[in-house]
Structure formats: C-alpha cells, structure tokens
Amino acid sequence: MIELLRRADPARPAIVADGATTTYGELVDRAEAVAAGLVERGITRFAVLDSDAATVAALLAGSSLAGAEACQYPPTDDTVEIGGLAARFEHGVVVTTRDDPPIQALSPPQLFTATGPRIDSPPAARPLLVLTTGTTGTPRGVRHDWNRVLRAARRIVPAPDERWLLAYGLHQFAGLQIIAHVAAAGATLVAPALRRPREGLAAIRAHGVTHASATPTYWRFLLAELRADGGAAPELVQITLGGEAVPAPLLGELRRSFPTARISQVYAASEFGSSGSVRDGRNGLSLDVLDRPDDADVAMNVVDGELWVRSRIGMLGYYGEPATDPDAWRPTGDLVEIVDDRIMFRGRTSDVINVGGVKVHPLPIEERIGAVGGVDMARVYGRPNAMTGAIVAVEIVPAAGADTERIRDDVRAACADLVPAARPRSIRFVESVAMAGNKIVRRHTT
Amino acid sequence: MGESQRLDETLRSFLTRVGKNAEFDLSTPLYADGLGLDSLETAELSAVLEDEFGNDPFSADTMPQTVGDLSAFYAAAVAEG
Lengths: 446, 81
What we know:
The complex is a heterodimer.
Chain A: H1 2-7, E1 13-17, E2 20-23, H2 24-41, E3 45-49, H3 53-66, E4 69-72, H4 79-88, E5 93-96, E6 104-106, H5 108-112, E7 127-131, E8 141-145, H6 146-149, E9 163-166, H7 173-185, E10 188-191, H8 197-207, E11 211-214, H9 216-229, E12 238-242, H10 248-257, E13 262-269, E14 273-278, E15 285-286, E16 298-303, E17 306-311, E18 317-318, E19 330-339, E20 342-348, E21 353-355, E22 358-360, H11 362-370, E23 375-385, E24 389-398, H12 404-414, E25 426-429, E26 435-436, E27 439-440
Parallel strand pairs in A: 1-10, 3-4, 3-5, 5-6, 9-10, 9-11, 11-12, 12-13, 24-25
Antiparallel strand pairs in A: 1-2, 7-8, 8-18, 13-14, 15-20, 16-17, 17-19, 19-20, 21-22, 23-24, 26-27
Chain B: H1 3-17, H2 39-53, H3 67-80
Helix pairs in contact in B: 1-2
C-alpha cells in the first residue's frame, strides 16, 4: 500500500473528507509514522475504530509497512459490541478517538506523531484482517495479505485527474479495493462523512466526482434521491456496480440518467478478491470467464447452478480456522444461470425461499416489483408461515406521493404469471428496507 | 369496531381480492366446498390476519376449519386480554 502512495505526486490531493484535504505527501508521512509507532510499541495486531477515511488510510498503509495486521471494525457506538469483536478476534489494542473503548486504546495522533526510526520497505508478510458483514450471523474474520490484495492494483495506469466517490465503508473489502485503486491511479478519493446515497450525491456534486462504485441498492437509492431533488444529474465518467446481482431495469435507468457514463460491473467478495470488471455495459458476466487459463488469478466454474471460484488473490483463510488451499475450488453462494453468452446472477443460495417445498428465488421477483411505477425500492424475502413454512413477502419503499393501493394492485398484476408459490402473499409499505453494508438483506427480519 | 366486525371485513376484503365467494357465515368451512381456500391462499390469509390483528389462528395448536373457528380464536384472545 505504501508503495502505491509513494508513487503518486506528493502534492496531489489523495483524500477529500469532511471538508479537509489530505495530500499524498501527508498520507505517506502519516503512514511512515504509524509504521514506526507500531514497531516502537511492539504492536503486531490491532483494531481500528474510526470513520475518517484519511485516518484509516494512513493506519492501513502504516500497518502494511510495519507488517502488522490491521482490522477495521464496522462503525458502532456500542461498547459491548466493540468488546465482543475484540474478544472474538483477540485484539488487545484499538486505535480510535473514542474515550470509552473496552480494551487498550491509542489515538491516531499518537501514532501519527511517532518519532521512531522510519521503515523503508515492508516485510514479505503483510497481513490484513477484514470482517464480513455478518448478514447470516456473527461476522467472520477474513485473513488477507496486502501482496495479494494489491496484485491487480499494481497494473492500474496512473489517472491523477480521476475523482472517486467512496460509497463503501473502509471496513468492507469493497472499500479497501476502492482505496487501493485510487492510490494506484494517483487519483483522489472523495469520502463523505456518511456513506449514504443522499450524502454521496451531495459529495459527487460538491467535489466534481468522476467515478463512483457502489452496490446496485446504493445506486437505486441514489437515483431516487436524484428524482426527489429534481436537480441535474452529475456528469459521471464511470459508474461501477458490485456486491449484489444487478437488476436489469437498473442498468437501463442508470444509462438514461447518466448518459455520459461508462457502466461496468465488478464481481468480487472478501473471500476470493476481485475477479475483474465487465465493461460492456451488459448485465451479467461474459461466458468466457469460464475459460480462463490455469494460472489465472481468479478462475470460475458453474456447478449445479452455483458459481464456484478458485482464487490465488483471495483470502488466506478465516480467522481461527485452517488456511485455505489457493488451488481449491470454492462455492460462492451465488446462484447463476447461463443465458446465451452471459452468466446471469439469480440470487444467493441463502436467499432461496422454501414455500411448501417449492424453491423460490427472490431476485427475479424483486426485479419485477422494482419496475412497477411508484416503487423506489423493494425487498423480497421469506416470511415464516405456519401453513407453508414460508411465503414470499415484499417490503416496498414507495416514491414520494405514490398511491400505495395502486402499487399493491400493480405488484400483484406484475407477478400474476409467476407460479403460485412465487407470487408475493404479503405486501408491506415501509420507509426503508433492511440493509447490511449497502446491500439488501433478504432473509427474514422482525 | 368490534373484533367480530373487523374479522368479517378483513375476511371479505381478502376473499374478494383473491376471487373467492365472499358470502359466508360462521359455519362456512374455510376449504374445499366452503370458501375453497388452497394451501397458499390459506397461508396468505394467515399473514393478512397476523398483520391486522397481531396474531394468527393458523399458528395455534388447532387448525381452524371454519369461519367460526377464526372468530372464536379472536374472541378468546380478547377475553384473555
């Protein structure tokens, strides 16, 4: 990481956040001080609890230079949760500005002002721990090495005029990918204080963002914000979607709203890294990803309708579990279907709803409902039911001023030709849908 | 509005929407020759009733067979407070 930061022009802005700009030179100075401070204190593993992108970037780069394992916790004010994470992942030190952490704390400035001997080059092993979002239970720690994480970033061509929006948390693997990409390009990261679509749209406008990468759910909300405020759509150069299957109508809506933007999709996960991007603007992956050579960073295969990968840039293993074999094939949990020359995503194996023995995939239903007029967002999930085990249920965020009774009728009409088990049997209108890390949660929530 | 009337209106609205005969009395069976609900329609009705009343007679120990069973379930729930 430090190598990428050092490669950029030190005077150029690296991160614009909360009204403050941090240059590449300042970031390198802080990262080198962090590395010296970690070595001086004998810290080899630590947690980070801070939402400021420039602070986190310096801590991550410093930790990679020192060969210490950093782990960014998800944002929380709950000291019990922080204590639980620290116990689970055996962290003895947390770097934070909070004054009530349940374990030993260092403030970022204590590390930024360290005066110990500077480290020129990083050690061979540069560990990193990334927590999963825990949508299906407690978070797991995914062990990575910066050498692998940054392998693709080293091939990125410098593009210092690009201004990237940070729409992910830096505790998420996707957030780390964005910051690595920006550093490799010597570009600028625009990081709003809150990673929500409303603040994202404001930051895009205020800071002339040219490139933005986010989940489909984030983009749908951003489009809803755009419709609601009636302002002009920013002239984005590139839009990237990842982290979830992309509903087909969303691609069309993005094309119409951002006619100057190139649209690409990234297929990546904390466990196997990034498989690269699809830049042709069409939904799904190109079928030729199944023909990658044996020495490819990420190879793919389809087994019984599920995508499997073999990754040599992926995780080393889960924390507390045996190391993974980089030559082993692993199921991704993503259900796919080959349609002509594309691999289309149909949802997650864990999202499948069992309605009286009939397996129903929520995503195609969600796509139909999302295309109904007056629907800003829809979440299809399995609602427990005494008669059939589960029924297909939908929560809908209506557009401002929309007639909900009409939406209800239109949703039923839009799903009338589905098999009976797949038709929504419960329709509720809500102000927001259950989310985890800017992705829709499709399991049942109460 | 009493629980009985609320149930009557909720049931009538549901039956009309799913295209069933909305004429019934307490002795009308829910299935087959009565209202003719199939398993998915019954599942949907249970969700509708849970949304309206906060609990669902189809989750109780005894499976309701008639409109009167639904009415009795909610009457008992009111009596239990």
